[in-house]
Amino acid sequence: MDDVSHILDDLNEAQREAVTAPVSDLLVLAGAGSGKTRVLVHRIAWLLAVEGASPWSILAVTFTNKAAREMRGRIEQLIGQPPGGMWVGTFHGLAHRLLRAHWREAGLPQGFQILDADDQFRLVKRLLKQLEIDDARWPPRQVMGFINARKEEGLRPQHLDDGGDFYQRTLLRLYTEYEQACKRGGVIDFAELLLRAQELWRNHPDLLAHYRERFAHVLVDEFQDTNAIQFAWLRLLTQGRGNFFVVGDDDQSIYGWRGARVEHIREFQQLYPDARLIRLEQNYRSSGNILNAANALIEKNASRLGKRLWTADGDGEPIRLYAAFNEIDEARFVIERVQQFIDEGHRRDEAAILYRSNAQSRLFEEALRQAGIPYRVYGGQRFFERAEIKDVIGYLRLIVNRDDDVGFERAVNQPPRGIGPRTLDALRAHARDFGCSLWRAARELIDGGRMASRARNALLGFLELIDACDEDGDARLDERVESVIEASGLVAYFKKSRDGRGEDRIENLSELVEAARGFAATYEAESDEPDVLTAFLGLAALEAGDTQGAEHEDCVQLMTLHSAKGLEFPLVFIAGVEEDLFPHRMSAEDPERLEEERRLCYVGITRAMRQLYLSYAETRRLHGQETTPTPSRFLRDIPPELIEEVRAVAPVSRPWSGAGGAGLAEVGFQLGQRVSHPRFGEGVVLNAEGQGRSARVQVNFETSGSKWLVVAFANLAPC
Question: With contact defined as beta carbons under 8 Å apart, do 108 and 186 qualify?
């Protein structure tokens, strides 16, 4: 075995067992940080060096182009030569390769092209116009989502029944027309790549037999993330062959909302009865306390294959839990700790702030900017760069200045209100010919009676909407922003969205109202300028135009928990660990969705290598409402001996004792005093910090437990 020692020497016992297992159906249940990619790569090297496999006989599938490139690079490094002949790539990449080779059998033109998401959107939009279907009622992105979801389930229009529902019947008509348009144009979309590849094998047994014979070894990474059509494709290739090697972790299945089916990995041994199961449980990423917390949390899920992560390293630091007064205090505390981490000599990109909802990023972005710490929003955009935020900003710009053509173009048909491209082209032409703004062009064309009645009414309705929104100029800034959002129809539009992002967009709109509220408070206190709305729009433009850190710059990383999968950081913060936020309110009452939320928390915890902070707020403005959230049930799943509660380190938050408590004495409370709260009932004052209106008191309530409350707002009364 000397000639293959380089394949085995750096593997642990379980990894070595998986790499050297006899060729058969095999499920490697690989926990977070357990070296699953290493096992997959070393397995391929073992097949080539020991089992005598030809590179042409290997098909290896992963989920991202980045992972595929990394896999190919590591195989080349391990075997000392390029992995020529192997099929190593993503599902879409391999399906494309297959269809290029067999375009005729697949019913495609030889030079077929692929539609990206933007191309698909434009095609659907054009079909809606041609068929005279209202794109306000059937928004193009919802139609796209419907078509793609059906394809991912392996369903063509002829397989579907409208159930007598007019809305469903229209979607099926659009699906049919869309397929015909794609056929005429010789194009296919991403979902079609997989469906057409699966149908190719299903409808041509001779081709399927050829590839089943050729690919004697089929290996799949991240198997828990497969959807219905991906697994159907793999099943055709592997069923009864005894050559299926899959690596995955049911505890990290967090993409059910986009079609991934965790039952594929859980039922693998039922579908492949002779399959072996090998668990990889030794973790090389995180300290013992972090792993123990993750294990305790995920054990609360009933439906799992089961494993327990462990490390040969020590327990490490305890998990820190911070109970913030509100979301502003939470952001301040997190950035304080980030700054402390940087001051200790660490790189900024070794710290990550994770959150359940995109809308939570704004306050962290603001606090990082104020602290002068570069940051990057991973896998997303900064708050003021998000499309739905720019939509509302377009309305506000037009309210401030009717001649703002950028604002007009952004707002005029978002959400769709029946103002078509022909009408907009006419406006642009008139504005160009007469040297006026689009707003004035619209007024002149309407007043001149030079428009068809339908277009005229739609355009007039928009102008009147803007004028109406301008009538509440004396209202508070946040009230004006909220009023514009409501009047625009954006919330109702996003509620109907079927692309899986509508809820996030609505949350972001609520967060924009909060941003306006916070800006107005600061602005009124520090500025003599009369127009707060104009100043707010200036802030939005500056923040949207301020380029965030590039991918490889040394920046603090901000991201959603979903985006964090596959990454690791020495320091991790998980913010907003509260009921209705995490677990999300849409999942809390559904057992299956709640289990996925818990898996998402497990993924977040296991991103941390050395230090993990969890935080929640005792009061939080959520969706424009002041709330008093309950700490997340996920916190109760973690053994208390693993957690250390921490307090803020800012000078304004110094601990208070009986000798130094002049701040609280002024408002009439003492340590040990019994008090009552309108919601939490009676309790005893245990501790306090701060002074004046920022003073906070810790009260142990008989029925609600210990809570920190701001004295100025808590409505506490002596008993």
Answer: yes
Length of the chain: 719
What is 319-382+546-646's CATH number, 3.40.50.150, 3.40.50.300, 3.30.870.10, 3.40.190.150?
3.40.50.300
- Active site positions, annotated: 36-37, 221-222, 252, 607
Domain ranges of the chain: 2-100+195-282, 113-185, 319-382+546-646, 385-541, 651-718
Rounded average pLDDT per 10-residue block, the chain, 719 residues: 77 96 96 94 94 94 86 86 85 91 92 82 89 87 92 93 89 94 88 95 96 97 95 96 97 91 95 96 97 98 94 96 93 96 96 94 90 86 82 90 86 88 89 89 88 88 92 84 93 80 85 85 56 78 55 86 94 96 88 95 98 95 80 95 78 34 54 80 76 70 76 79
Phi, psi of 669 (to 5 degrees): -120, 155
Q: How far apart are CA 55 and CA 47, in angstroms?
A: 9
The C-alpha atoms of residue 39 and residue 29 are separated, in whole angstroms, by 11
Strand partners, 705: 701
Q: Which CATH number fits domain 651-718: 2.40.10, 2.30.230, 2.30.30, 3.40.50?
A: 2.40.10
Look at residues 629, 618, 513 and name the one whose alpha carbon lies nearest to residue 580: 629
Can you name the residues that pair with 708 across neighbouring β-strands? 698
Question: Got the DSSP string for 240-309?
Answer: TTS-EEEEE-GGG---GGGT--THHHHTHHHHSTT-EEEEE-B-SSS-HHHHHHHHHHHTT-SS------
Beta-strand pair 217-220/375-377: unpaired
3-state secondary structure (DSSP) of residue 583? coil
Rounded Cα distance, 514 and 481, in Å: 10
212 phi/psi in degrees, rounded to 5: -65, -35
The helix/strand/coil state of 626 is strand
Residue 530: what pLDDT? 54
The CATH code of the domain at 113-185 is 1.10.10.160
Report which residue type is found at 530: P
Place of tokens 């008090």: 675
Three-state secondary structure call for residue 655: strand
CB 586, CB 546: distance < 8 Å: no
The CATH code of the domain at 385-541 is 1.10.486.10
Tokens (6 digits) for 216: 């004697």
Distance CA 555, CA 382 (A): 14
Q: Find how far residue 586's CA is from the centre of its chain.
A: 15
* Dihedral angle sign, alpha carbons of residues 68, 73, 78, 82: positive
Tally Cβ neighbours within 10 Å of residue 150.
19
Token representation of residue 645: 């509660």
For residues 420 and 461, what is the distance between their CA atoms, to the nearest angstrom?
Answer: 14
Q: Which two tokens stand for residue 273?
A: 């009865």
Are 150 and 175 contacting, i.e. CB atoms less than 8 angstroms apart? yes
Q: Which of 353, 350, 330 is nearest to 341 (CA)?
A: 350
Per the CB < 8 A criterion, the answer to whether 127 and 171 are in contact is: no
CATH of 2-100+195-282, one of 3.40.30.10, 1.10.10.10, 3.40.50.300, 3.40.1190.20: 3.40.50.300
**Interatomic CA distance for residues 50 and 653, integer angstroms:** 64
Residue 415 DSSP class: S
Query: Helix (H, G, I), strand (E, B), or coil: what is residue 614?
Result: strand
What value does the CA radius of gyration of the chain take, rounded to a whole number of Å? 29
CA distance linking residue 394 with residue 410, whole number of Å? 5
Say yes or no: do domains 2-100+195-282 and 319-382+546-646 share a fold. yes
Angle in degrees, CA 352, 607, 373, rounded to 5: 10
pLDDT of residue 659: 32
Give the closest residue to 198 by CA, choosing from 245, 259, 155. 155
